[in-house]
Model the fold of this input.
Amino acid sequence: MSLPTPIAWTPDFRVRLLDQTLLPGEERYLEIRTVEEMVEAIRSLRVRGAPLIGIAAAMGVVQALTGTGGTPVAGLSPLEAVHAAAAALSAARPTAVNLSWALGRMMLRADRHGSTPGLREALIAEADAIWAEDRAMCDRIGEAGLALIPDGATVLTHCNAGALATGGRGTALAPVYLAHERGRRVHVVVDETRPLLQGSRLTAWELQRAGVPCTLIADSMAASRLRRGDVACVLVGADRIAANGDVANKVGTYGVALAARAAGVPFYVAAPRSTVDLSTPTGDEIPIEERRPEEIARWGDRVVAPGGTPVWNPAFDVTPAALVTAIVTDFGLVLPSDLARQAR
Done:
């Protein structure tokens, strides 16, 4: 099974990113050399997926210090440069809590070290630790969710919560990949995920690359497919989970959850501990990013809506905890009502 590696260090500790905006047509890797370039990559979805955004931001902080000796930029002290980088990266996308979580860890490490020699090396080590922990968390999520996918199961997913969204094999797709590795027959129904097609462009691409059978459907077909009765479960990722178990994920997830409930199909959310935000009581307090109208009003270079048509383009929606059968985490399978206690 071949899974993509969407992020890596270069030999001089710049960041090598797979530009996900070009998939599936072109597999191009970018070298990120500045904080500003990483901010642009996160904002423009060249790198995306809540866990991977956190890893990328951690690596991006390192770019505030240039040269092997960690020379400060723009006349700032090394610690000041790192704090300025974290502030810029934090503002790139507001919904995914992994971004602020990872940056918080980097700042804690920086503050403990201070503007003394070796700060850059300390930050590289912390970013590596965040990345390694994410890989391990993906594996544990795979094990926790494996029982949900018996031999011959069909799973429906929305957006992309696989290797392209994490530092490892994924969150929602981790149990799928593990089942496939262990010889189980598994088939994935992939929502296209409008308006940016993360399902058709990314999920279908990496499933094919891994040799996992899949079928692509338009988002509007999900309810009809669930009603057919051949889907064993829905498995999706998350960008933030509130303390009460409400889940923010790619817009369209809420509709899939409603359809799954109507069809009697279990609806599971897979996410690492870092995606659980105990400081946010409910989904109502989760900030929802709104993106450019052009993402809906245009299809590539083609205009598909009359000029001046008002557009509402939230990147995420919130699925109430009552619609979530269980949450597959790196600390096991938990009910939304038990999440706050288990995540501490």
